[in-house]
Design brief:
568 residues; alpha/beta; 8-stranded parallel beta sheet; 18 helices
Length: 568
């Protein structure tokens, strides 16, 4: 067995800092809170933390609008506290990966303040500025967050480009000074001791040169409306194709791969560091060794229900597409998508399905990423009101629902909750106490806490319950560490046409492990390969032992069954 890198063996845990743990009692998560919970993370069994942006920011897009790449947001604490948090992780052999926003800065970043001060400022070309075209914006591009991609600056009489919100102007990466400045940022944090970066919105860094019109005659609001009114999958696919055509000059330009190769060379100056891309595009692996180390298998989570057919097809397509030397990376949610139980549940068996889905994530080949709060079964908070919204996307959807679809305020509010991201960013539920123990009772948290913390969905009550979701997470994480085959083994699907059970092998030269996941609410069977002998159960959600008879393994509803075997 070849020696694996730490990031190939690790289980990552994403911390959304504003909602993780409030250490100073002001209703906002912070580094003091994170420091207090490091031992919890170690107890849980995760190996690495991906920390969503901690930099100073006006918080228009909650940290993804950076105003200082070298600092710590004052509401989160100080640089000394950041270093202490990192040191506490390292002391327990855990790693820390930062969220790095390469595509854009905040409009309050000193670079942009200088850039917009005059047309001849030395930093003018650090951003994408264009003069009006016949008194209108430079072209017909849109921002993915709604509205034009160009904002007019009356002081200098030109437009600046932003793929996201107007408060997030895009950096001009064709300027070598920008590249050098951002590479200096990378080196600064690596010298400080962080273990790598998750690269935000990596596919949007470059735009097509010449900035041609899309010339589709389409409008982003019209695509939104038609997508919402789609009644068939064909109509929805048509709306999706229109969206892709509209943004075809703004994403995934070929120049980004040369930049990633250069960034990889910078990171390779430091031993054992990792680059993780917020992209599903296989091309960002390069030749498997010269661009990013990990790219997310987002297609796995693009469904309302994980089924054997869906997962088999995903694994067949994904693994066969990876270049030699590339390593898979799997996740089922994050701060931008719905929580697992809400996304993949059926409303009746959500807790059982969530256990199956976690087993899937931790046994597939590749590095798994978890999101804070999933370990206790947190769900989307759909009881939020307009006045609670903190995500500008929610407010944008609320307006469009009323203006484009004629929805009532109540209807618009319900959809905007689903559309936006506040629903999955609510404070982590630590205890059955006011505000779920996240912050003092007399303090208003930055987002409302989901009320189900009083129904056992909290860390304290699950901590000592052997059958809790928290205990299940910890047990599966321990199992993964104890079986090297679950980390290093090759993937081999079994019983390929079974509609109910997803079964597969993970194999090394030393071990063969069978994983069988019954994804249905009834008993089911899976047929095994003829050369599998002497199966021994090492984990099951329903029994302490199990064996196959005549090459058939019988499973209880939503059973997770993991066993070691001999193969001929």
């Amino acid at each position: 067995m070849s020696q694996k890198k730490w990031w190939q063996s690790a289980v990552f845990y994403q911390i959304y800092p504003r909602s993780f743990a409030d250490g100073n009692g002001d209703g906002i998560g912070d580094f003091e809170g994170m420091i207090q919970k490091v031992e919890y993370l170690h107890w849980l069994g995760v190996d690495a933390v991906w920390l969503s942006p901690h930099f100073p920011s006006p918080q228009v897009d909650w940290g993804y609008d950076v105003s200082d790449y070298y600092g710590v947001a004052p509401e989160y604490g100080t640089m000394e506290q950041f270093i202490r948090f990192m040191d506490e992780l390292h002391r327990r052999d855990m790693r820390l990966v930062l969220d790095l926003v390469l595509n854009h800065t905040s409009d309050q970043h000193p670079w942009f303040v200088e850039s917009r001060s005059s047309r001849d400022n030395p930093k003018r070309d650090w951003y994408v500025w264009k003069p009006p075209r016949d008194g209108r914006p430079p072209n017909d591009w849109f921002s993915t967050f709604g509205g034009p991609a160009w904002t007019f600056d009356p002081q200098t009489g030109e437009y600046y480009y932003h793929f996201f919100f107007a408060q997030q102007p895009d950096l001009n990466w064709r300027n070598p000074e920008v590249k050098q400045a951002m590479f200096d940022v990378v080196r600064y944090w690596l010298n400080l001791g962080v273990d790598g970066f998750r690269l935000d919105a990596v596919g949007t860094i470059f735009e097509r040169e010449g900035y041609p019109n899309h010339a589709t005659g389409d409008h982003l609001d019209a695509i939104y409306r038609d997508s919402r009114l789609a009644r068939t999958k064909a109509e929805q696919r048509k709306a999706n194709r229109r969206w892709l055509r509209m943004f075809r000059h703004q994403v995934d330009m070929p120049e980004v791969h040369e930049l990633m190769r250069e960034l990889r060379q910078v990171v390779d100056e430091f031993p054992e560091k990792v680059l993780i891309g917020e992209t599903e595009d296989i091309r960002f692996y390069g030749n498997g060794e010269d661009e990013l180390h990990l790219n997310f298998n987002f297609p796995l989570m693009h469904t309302n229900r994980l089924t054997p057919r869906w997962v088999r097809k995903n694994q067949e397509e994904r693994l066969s597409s990876l270049p030699a030397g590339a390593w898979p990376c799997n996740t089922l949610n994050n701060h931008d998508s719905g929580r697992m139980m809400s996304q993949f549940g059926d409303g009746k068996h959500d807790w059982q399905i969530a256990r199956v889905d976690l087993a899937l994530l931790l046994t597939l080949k590749g590095t798994p990423f978890l999101y804070n709060g999933e370990e206790i079964g947190m769900v989307n908070h759909l009881g939020l009101k307009v006045e609670d919204f903190r995500d500008l996307l929610s407010l944008h959807a609320y307006r469009l629902e009323i203006e484009l679809l004629g929805s009532s305020p109540q209807e618009a509010e319900l959809y905007a909750i689903q559309y936006g991201r506040d629903k999955c960013r609510t404070p982590l539920q630590w205890a059955n106490q006011p505000n779920a123990g996240f912050c003092p009772a007399e303090v208003k948290p930055w987002l409302p806490v989901h009320p189900n913390f009083g129904e056992g969905v909290n860390v304290d009550e699950q901590y000592n319950q052997p059958d809790s979701m928290l205990a299940y997470y910890r047990r599966l994480l321990q199992l993964r560490k104890s079986l090297p085959v679950l980390i290093h083994g090759d993937y081999q699907p079994l019983d390929r046409h079974n509609p109910h059970v997803f079964s597969f092998l993970r194999r090394t030269a030393d071990q063969t492990c069978l994983i069988a996941l019954n994804m249905k609410a009834h008993r089911a069977k899976t047929h095994l390969s003829e050369n599998i002998k002497n199966l021994r159960c090492v984990f099951s959600t329903h029994r302490s032992e199990g064996f196959a008879e005549n090459g058939v393994l019988s499973l209880q509803p939503f059973e997770v069954w993991i066993g070691l075997a001999e193969t001929l």
